[in-house]
Amino acid sequence: MEGNHSYGASWADQWDYSNPDPVPAGATTSAMNNSTTAKYKQKVGEGLGKTKVVASNGVKKVKEGTSSGLRWIKEKYRKTTQKH
Fold first, then answer.
1. Angstrom distance (rounded) from CA 7 to CA 35
2. Tens digits of residue pLDDT in 42-63
3. CA distance 66 to 60
4. Cα–Cα distance between 52 and 58 in angstroms, integer?
5. How far apart are CA 78 and CA 72, in angstroms?
C-alpha cells in the first residue's frame, strides 16, 4: 500500500478566497446584532420550553408503561406459583 495518496485539491484549495467576508459591511451594526440576538434567544427559549414539556410527557408515559408492565409480570408470576 502506498503511504502518500493524492486526491486532487487539498481541503483549503476547495474554498474560494475571493470574498473572505460573506457578511455585507453595513449588516454588522451593533443595534442589528443586539436585536437579532434577542430574537434568537427568545426563539431558543420558546423551543426549550416546548422541549421540556414534550420530555416531561414522555417520561410520564414511560413511567406509566413500566408500572403497568411490572404489574402484568407480577400477575403472571402469581398465577404460575399459586397452588389450589
1. 45
2. 888 888 888 889 999 999 999 9
3. 10
4. 10
5. 10
The total number of residues shown for the chain amounts to 84
Cite the DSSP H helix spans in the chain: 30-81
Q: What is the mean pLDDT of residues 11-26?
A: 59
Model pTM greater than 0.70? Answer: no
Residue 25's identity, in one-letter code, is A
| CB environment 24-46: b (16+ within 10 A), e (fewer) | eeeeeeeeeeeeeeeeeeeeeee
Query: 29 to each of 10, 24, 33, 50, how far by Cα in Å?
Result: 35, 10, 6, 32
